[in-house]
Specification:
Length: 136
Amino acid sequence: MTVIEKVSYLKGLAEGLGLDESNKTDKLIQAIIDVLDDMALTVSDMEDHTAEIEEQVNEIDEDLDDLEGYVYGGMDDEDDAFYHVTCPECGEEICIDESMFDQDYINCPACGEKLEFDFGCDCDDEDCDCCGEQEK
C-alpha cells in the first residue's frame, strides 16, 4: 500500500466518523489529515523523480562502460602489468607496460633520452633457470 493509499484510507475513516468542523478536536484531526495528504503527494512526486534520475544514471553508466571499452580497447587491469621507470637523464617517472618491453628501446617522453631495458638475471646462481642456462 502506498502512502497516498494509506492517507486516502485515513480520509475515509475520518469521513465515516462524521467529524464536526465546529469541534476543535475534529478540526485538528481534519487539518492533520490534510497535511498528511499534501505530504503523501510530495513523497509520491519525489519517488517518481528519483525513478527518473535512477534511469538516467543507469543510462549514463552504460554509456560510460561503452566509452571505457572504446578508450581502453578491452584492456583488463588485472591482465596488464604497468611499471614505473625513472629516466636517468631527467629524473622523470615514466609508466610503461609489458608491450613496450618487446621494443629494443623507448625514448623518454620528457627529454628524448634513449632508454634500454635489460631483463637478464644477475643473481649468478647456477640453480637459477636463466643463469644456469647462460653458463651451460
